[in-house]
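Researcher: We are triaging several targets before committing to wet-lab work. For this one, the compound of interest is zinc ion. I'm pasting the protein sequence and the ligand SMILES. What I need is the predicted three-dimensional arrangement of the protein with the ligand bound, expressed as structure tokens, so it can go straight into our comparison scripts without reformatting.
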Amino acid sequence: MMHSVRDYAPALKRGELLGYHCQSCGREWLTSLNVCPFCSSSKIEDVSLPKKGKILAYTFQNVVPEQLQSKAPYVIAVIELTDKSRIQARIEDYMPSMGNIIGREVGILRGDESGLVFRLS
Ligand SMILES: [Zn+2]
């Protein structure tokens, strides 16, 4: 049985990043969808996604949700996980002195309904 969006936060608390795997093209992704976003196949199964990856691109977020005001501005990054699937997450421990962080390795720190949080490793 497929997991739903409601299963995502409790799984993260157990340290598991729930995702989907397409049996037709072999790609994986995070968001709950009924068909594969790459090949439109409906042969989809649950998987646990890798919890490490590297930063492909990032930007600074200045306008942020109410509950994250104290952390603004923060970094939002597109991360390529070790299985090549791509996700978007907030980067917790970025410092301006680090300069360009494209290509840096990151690991999952936590996540909840508001999104995923990764840190530089
Ligand atoms: Zn597919």
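Researcher: Any quick observations?
Model: Helices lie at 5-13.
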